[in-house]
Amino acid sequence: MVRTVEEALALREARIGQFCMGEVHGRAPDSFDFGNSPFEISGVDFHGKTIIQRTSAGTQGIVAAANQADRERRNLRRLRVMSRSISKPARPRHRASA
User: Fold this and answer.
1) Distance between CA atoms of residues 9 and 20, nearest Å
2) Are the C-beta atoms of residues 12 and 49 closer than 8 Å to each other?
3) Cα separation of 34 and 21, whole Å?
């Protein structure tokens, strides 16, 4: 699942996936192997192949959710570090002699 047509094509070019599938505003990009129709691919054997998918709605939500999950993980790591430093006992302060 990718956000842009260019990203899908770059992944196919890098041989990370074999097929580009999806749509932009309801139409398959000219450079894609398939559109977004389940009927269109119903007879295709994808066994052992990787599909790179881009759509106007579905993949956009998945990509956004994945990015949000990454942000949440980073925030949790920060909170753990902060909680460890807060829970450490304070070191006694030495008073200067008068």
Assistant:
1) 7
2) no
3) 5
